[in-house]
Amino acid sequence: MKFLILNAGSSSQKSCLYELAGDRLPETAPEPLWEAFIDWTVLENQGRLMVETPGQKQVIILETGDRQRGIARMLDTLVIGDHAVLKSLGEIDLVGHRVVHGGTNYAEATLITPTVQQAIADLIPLAPAHNPAHLEGIEAIGEQLGDVPQIAVFDTAFHRTIAAPAAEYPIPQAWTDLGIRRYGFHGTSHKYCAQKTAEILGKPLTELKLITCHIGNGASLTAIKNGVSIDTTMGFTPLEGLMMGARSGSIDPAIVLFLQETQGLTPAEINATLNKKSGLLGVSGRSPDLRVILQAKAEGDEQAQLAYAMYIHCFRRCLGAMVASLEGLDTLVFTAGVGENAATVRADVCQAFQFLGLKLDPELNDRSPRNAVISTPDSLVKVVIVHTEEDWAIAQDCWQWWHSQGPGKKP
After folding, report:
1. Which cofactor does it need (predicted)?
2. Contact status, residue 105 vs residue 403, Cβ threshold 8 Å
3. Does the annotation flag 186 for ligand binding?
4. Do the domain assignments include residue 291?
5. pLDDT digits (tens, 9 = 90+) for 125-178
6. Which residues are catalytic?
7. CATH, residue 288
8. Would you say the pTM of this structure is higher than 0.90?
9. How far is C-alpha 356 from the chain's CA centre?
10. Annotation-wise, does 301 bind a ligand?
């Protein structure tokens, strides 16, 4: 069986192709036959496509910012050129999609039907930076691969275990009854990283108090106790919580009313600004990319310095809230683009929690080792870097869906 996995972020498109044989999943992630990554932030109105197959790498500049055309070009590399691994796209048995928001209706891997596709579209107001990208991928696959089964794996599913005191907002019950609650996001990554951390430490997941920090252009923290999510920083939408690349994170809701009343801004204008023009980008005036901010900070740019200071302050504050929800902390986990690679962010965040007995090993931290402990042996709180493998986690859910259909039930 060949499973194609599409993992669309707010500023990227990561994809891979797995070949799975037999009736049992391998215990560790197999090497993908093919991997591709589109970065939509590096070049203005263009994309940078990186394709990798065993022993080969290629970089392709996409001359348009049109994401559907970019996905089509990406799929071409599966069957055309030096990186071709298939004779035709018809060899693909199933396509799995990470979908950020599934609302209250979807808590497991689900076959994408017109009804499901419409539900994803209806939830765009709650995930404006992501759900449109998922739909673009779903539509592009439909055009290129026809009736191949497409499966949605929802980021919100992992957080369905959050109890009402943490999941509900202090608003009138009539509003809560409208579905306004904390949904949480990055669930696929948080779940995978928690399981991987337990494996790295050689301890049962059910005995750990973890905080997983998924820090990329979008970012969230999750408190995990007994293997389940009990609290998380993102809420009704992915806008809540940490200061992010282009999202504001949590702000006083009265600010929105003030802008409407004094500046005449519409809800759509405010929404677009908070989701796409705030965060590191909004404060620095330069970029949502932390690498750019760090370079500008080193060059003495005052707004970049302020943006970074705010970023770390917000991170520490939100992390402290997760520690309180857990009533303690065994292990702190960093993952995703910034979490895995930005040693200075990890050092600056961890410095504030030395009072918990957390001791970071500076040399190990600077190396940014993959799937490794980077705290000192005597640290009371273990600090771990986990390379998130959302694609493999999605593939696992898709495999389970495929086999749950039984003989003769598969599309």
Report:
1. Mg(2+); Mn(2+)
2. no
3. no
4. yes
5. 888 878 888 998 899 899 889 989 999 999 998 999 999 999 999 999 999 999
6. 155
7. 3.30.420.40
8. no
9. 28
10. no
